[in-house]
Amino acid sequence: MKDKLNRIRNNPKFKQEIDKLKPKRNIWGLLGVILFFFLPELLNILYYKEINIWIYNYALNAPNQQMADLLIWLGKKSFDGELSYINIALGVIFLIWLFKKD
Predict the structure, then answer these.
(1) Residue 10, Cβ neighbours under 10 Å: how many?
(2) Which of 92, 85, 73 is nearest to 41 (CA)?
(3) Residue 102 above 70 pLDDT?
(4) How far is CA 15 from CA 24, 43, 93, in A?
(5) Where are the domains of the chain?
(6) What is the pLDDT of residue 29?
(7) What is the pTM assigned to this prediction?
(8) 23 confidence band (pLDDT: 50, 70, 90)
(9) CA–CA distance from 43 to each of 32, 74, 91, 94 (Å)?
(10) Do 88 and 37 touch, CB atoms closer than 8 A?
(11) 3-state secondary structure at position 32
């Protein structure tokens, strides 16, 4: 297993692909990380009640009752007003990776 891991780490193609994933060190890279990882969490904390009301009103126009129930259930699970620590942790990791010197 260690040999395979070392072969992967030393593979130039793998390094190129990882460099493509790394956010660029400019304003767009920073805004991308903030908008993708931190802003949804902030909106979830501040506006989860309004979002769930909107989802409920939208579900009233669903084609059938099962679809409406599914939309409401997903809305309550997704927008519950609590932080997603996984999302915050990934955002912090990407910010560290963004500013890390190569």
Answers:
(1) 9
(2) 85
(3) no
(4) 15, 35, 18
(5) 2-99
(6) 87
(7) 0.68
(8) confident
(9) 16, 17, 15, 20
(10) yes
(11) helix
